[in-house]
Amino acid sequence: SVEKYYAFEIPDVPAKSEYLEVKYSAECPRLPQDLKGQTFSHVFGTNTSSLELLLMSRKIKGPCWLEIKNPQPSNQSVSWCKVEAMAMKPGLVNVVKDLSPPPPLVVMSFSMKTTQNPKTHQNEVVAVAALIHQKFPLDKAPPQPPFQTHFCVVSKPNDCIFPYDFKEASKKKNAKIEIAATERTLLGFFLAKIHKIDPDVVVGHNIYGFDLEVLLQRINVCKVPHWSKIGRLRRSNMPKLGGRGGFAERNAACGRMICDVEISAKELIRCKSYHLSELVRQILKTERITVLPEEIRNMYSDSPRLMFMLENTWTDAKFILQIMCELNVLPLALQITNISGNVMSRTMMGGRSERNEFLLLHAFHEKDYIVPDKQVFKKAPQKLVDEDEDFEDQNKSKIGKKKAAYAGGLVLDPKVGFYDKFILLLDFNSLYPSIIQEFNICFTTVQRLSSEAQKRAEVDEEEEIPELPDPSLEMGVLPKEIRKLVERRRQVKQLMKQPDLNPDLYLQYDIRQKALKLTANSMYGCLGFSYSRFYAKPLAALVTHKGREILMHTKEMVQKMNLEVIYGDTDSIMINTNSTNLDEVFKLGNKIKSEVNKLYKLLEIDIDGVFKSLLLLKKKKYAALTVEPTGDGKYITKQELKGLDIVRRDWCDLAKETGNYIIGQILSDQPRDIIVENIQRRLIEIGENVINGQIPVNQFEINKALTKDPQDYPDKKSLPHVHVAMWINSQGGRKVKAGDTVSYIICQDGSDLSASQRAYAPEQLQKQDSLTIDTQYYLSQQIHPVVARICEPIEGIDSVLIATWLGLDPSQFRVHHHYHKDEENDALVGGPAQLTDEEKYRDCERFKFCCLRCGTENIYDNVFDGSGRFIEPSLQRCSKTECEEPPFNYVVQMSNKLLLDIRRYLGKYYNGWLICEEPTCRNRTRRLPLSFSRSGPVCQACRKAVLRPEYSDKDLYTQLCFYRYIFDMDYAMDKVITEDDRGNICIQHLKEKPIKTYVQLLILKRHFLSGRK
Q1: How do 924-925 and 914-916 pair as beta strands?
Q2: Cβ-proximal residues to 713 (8 Å cutoff; 6+ apart), any chain
Q3: Residue 826 has what pLDDT?
């Protein structure tokens, strides 16, 4: 028996206990996970893999030099390696402690061309090009050029022949091209080359999604021997291909590390899509020429075309290798793996949760803790981005999704508007990792509920926040590991500051600090990600709870310093300084910083930036000019965008460019009327250019990512990107899958289908003459909403005006009022104190009454008319100067008209019409949907926004208050009329009859406003 500790989520397991440790041969089947007996209640470690046991027991943390004692020769070769040896037991494997540099690796980058067989509809491989470097270093800058040798092999489709002069043409170009008569010969040659070169790393783009599966399928169909040479493990039976997650394909390459630059780029950079062409454009700053699968057969018509196709394949292999070098994928993966203690091949597959798991597994194993078992989930998580990226987003309310497991980061209500004075942005450094350290939050320190208490909390649907640990407790494993990462990064950054540092060493340090940063920042994610092995909802809830508390306390502290907090989100706050002096702003920032930092030992707030001007639209959406000081009191500005439509990939480039221009105008120092004039001119010009076909086609492309495989969507037709993805997959060539980005264009095809069903791939638009770009869709559904949302806080521009300038029918657009909860509350307490009566009631419908003598319509919006000596009660005379009948003579008729108007507004309110808050969606309904988000009922038409009352209780209340305002003579005499004007009101105007009329109308109004029936 052994003494072990336990600190995880299975309730009622003792913190420390005697355990029976059982060891048995790996040839025997594993025990059931839910096994129980008379003398034991739980079995731990039933599904722990042999690899994990080896790494933990021998403390192997990533690629390192190993000493193998008493190696035994292998009786039978189990791999394709030149040397094979066996260690008879794990104790004979030891980590070498000296810091020898890692060995150089053999790296092979490849690209291939496929075409679809018209009879079988299967992809056939027609060309493969590969670049090889025999000694690729991991501790220096990438070599230039990044390859030493290359090879290229070409075959032909069954229904094509090689051009008669192709061999001569390839000799003239001095190209090393192997000509294979059949696809089987090509694949055999490729496997033989892999076996001879024996690459440690195989590099490609979309290897897991396409290349490996197609290669293995074709090797299988063509019955090419020794298929397992694609990896290093000798096997005879081909794995079952095409399964979910590409498990079989990954397994087939066992023994070689696969570097898929598409996966690496998704983790390291942000792109609108991760297609090879886009990566080449963004990372290598050059343009890639594409050869489509359907064009390949035509390439065999003559030698120059075929040579062009092979050069293109070779160039793609070079681009892939260059992208890997530019992103430093291999050295970064090595550093991350050494930090986390997992396996480098798994690190390069992406997904941070496994790295965090291994880091914690090593830490807990060293302290004799029993670790949580790996859970097998029947349904894989739908979320494709890294689980812990933007972890606060996991808890945001998503429309149509179930309630969050626990409350996430606090987002303060923004004070929407345009600010032209300096705005100070303060940000907590690594808030959640810092909270874990500050309050010693760990599995080992925080007391969780017992099983009975857990059941009660689930029944009551209450979020139980555990108590903070006792400050006297020893530091827990989790905060200790995070502190190690933070301190190691600090040390590495100090080393980077050394003078005359070798460039290779500087690059190595930079890669190491980046690896430490990526690991430390993702540590919190394992607590809140439900598919993580170390998922601990109570701990995650406690961390976010403290985060909300700290942000709120910081806001209150800043407000006590007589400063205005205009917005805050999770770990940052924005402060309106009302200053135009940059030095003063930094002094103020440092003062706030020192006051806040006094309260904590490890938590630190810092100045994250200063905005010269800020357009704050709503939560998580703003545009600003960031100030970057250059010295001597001068600075330069840089535009920063957060959460706006123009930074999202699912809007076309034309809409983004238009939005960018408008933001640039709004943030500029120009007068307001010049800005409005420039926006008007630009929108008119864009509207005309779109209609006249003067905009390049690629500006209309919309990009949207697939969250699951196209065939798994239930409503394929209504989702344009899925509809197009299905078409792309039907054409052969590269398959699009979950996580890929699909480009499409909305076209006019002569049908009456909805816009979402008229989506086509760009190549379809090029080939089919019957298709034309749907200009009305792009103007009304792409450009208009982007512009309308940006211009919402700007006086003088509204949806109707924008529609007019774009050449759209303005009657189809309404002036859109966004719903704000704080406005609703303001209305119920009489409105914001700073608003004048005119501002408060400017949108209210005026009271109208027709003179019974002359028939003229009189409009009333105040108690008094005129000014100076000519001021008099508005009910004193008819607006038609010739009519001498005073309206107050018709008090009964006026009362009836007022009563009818009030009942009309009450009826409008109780009709309960709801409208979608999304300007592009015109859905109007009285049916309350069943699906709700935290913001309100979800619109069933667009599924993107929530429904708001067409006529809200705020609108009704303000209208009733307006009627009181226009008939309340006492209020008008006291608050509205100035001292000078009061003396000018003729005594005859204040006779009993007009006053009585006002009083009567006011009583009628108050009858409704007081809530009496």
Answers
A1: antiparallel
A2: 719, 722
A3: 43
What residue type is 106 in one-letter code?
V
What is the distance in angstroms between the CA of the first residue and the CA of the last residue of the chain? 80
Residue-wise DSSP of 695-710: S-GGGG-EEEE-SS-G
Residue 646: is it exposed, middle or buried by C-beta count within 10 angstroms (0-12/13-18/19+)?
Answer: buried
- Is the four-CA dihedral 708, 712, 718, 720 of positive or negative sign? positive
In whole angstroms, what is the distance from residue 348 CA to residue 362 CA?
Answer: 20
Closest CA to 625 of 607, 642, 643, 613: 613
Rounded distance between C-alpha atoms, residue 118 and residue 160, angstroms: 12
Cα gap 313→290, rounded to integer Å: 9
Q: How far apart are CA 371 and CA 362, in angstroms?
A: 10
Partners of residue 426 on adjacent β-strands = 573, 607
pLDDT of residue 404: 58
- DSSP string for 277-317: HHHIIIII-SPPPP--GGGTGGGGGSHHHHHHHHHHHHHHH
| Contact (Cβ atoms closer than 8 angstroms) between residue 840 and residue 812 | no
pLDDT at 736: 85
Low-confidence ranges of the chain (pLDDT < 50): 379-402, 816-834, 976, 986-989, 1012-1013
The pLDDT score that the predictor gives to residue 402 is: 47
721-723-729-734 Cα dihedral, nearest 10 degrees? -10
The full set of domains in the chain, from first to last, is 105-338 (3.30.420.10), 391-448+457-476+535-642 (3.90.1600.10), 645-810 (1.10.132.60), 821-912+952-1009 (1.10.3200.20), 913-950 (no CATH)
pLDDT at position 470 is 93
CB 391 within 8 A of CB 433: no
| DSSP at 29 | P
Cβ atoms of 509 and 492 within 8 Å: the answer is: yes
The phi, psi pair for 520, rounded to 5°, reads -60, -45
In order of 45, 449, 821, the CA distances from 4 in angstroms are 13, 21, 53
CA torsion through residues 367, 489, 603, 423, sign: negative
From residue 619, alpha-carbon distances to 411, 622, 626, 708, 915 in Å are 7, 8, 19, 28, 21
Query: CB–CB of 476/442 below 8 Å?
Result: yes
Maximum separation of any 2 CA atoms in the chain, in Å: 122
**Rounded Cα–Cα distance for residues 421 and 905 (Å):** 41
pLDDT tens for residues 47-88? 999 999 999 999 999 999 999 999 998 888 899 999 999 998
**Given this model, what pLDDT does residue 855 score?**
84
- Which parts of 205-360 are beta strand (E)? 257-260
**Dihedral pair phi/psi, residue 1007, rounded to 5°:** -60, -40
Give phi and psi for 671, each to the nearest 5.
-60, 155
Q: For residue 917, what are the CA distances in angstroms to 623, 642, 790, 945, 1004?
A: 21, 21, 15, 6, 35
Which helix (H) or strand (E) segment holds residue 618: the answer is strand 605-618
Segment 690-693 long-range contacts (CB within 8 Å, at least 24 positions apart): 690/654, 690/775, 690/778, 690/779, 690/783, 691/775, 691/807, 693/773
Report how far residue 216's alpha carbon sits from residue 211's, in angstroms, rounded to the nearest whole number.
9
Looking at residue 505, the DSSP 8-state letter turns out to be H
How many CA atoms are closer than 13 Å to the CA of 68, on its beta-carbon side? 10
Summarize pLDDT for 174-204 with one digit per residue, the tens: 778 999 999 999 999 999 999 999 999 999 9
**Inter-axis angle of helices 503-521 and 352-366, to 10 degrees?**
80
Structure tokens at 365: 């194993």
Q: 211: which DSSP letter?
A: I
Report how far residue 171's alpha carbon sits from residue 151's, in angstroms, rounded to the nearest whole number. 14
Q: Which two tokens stand for residue 279?
A: 């990566």
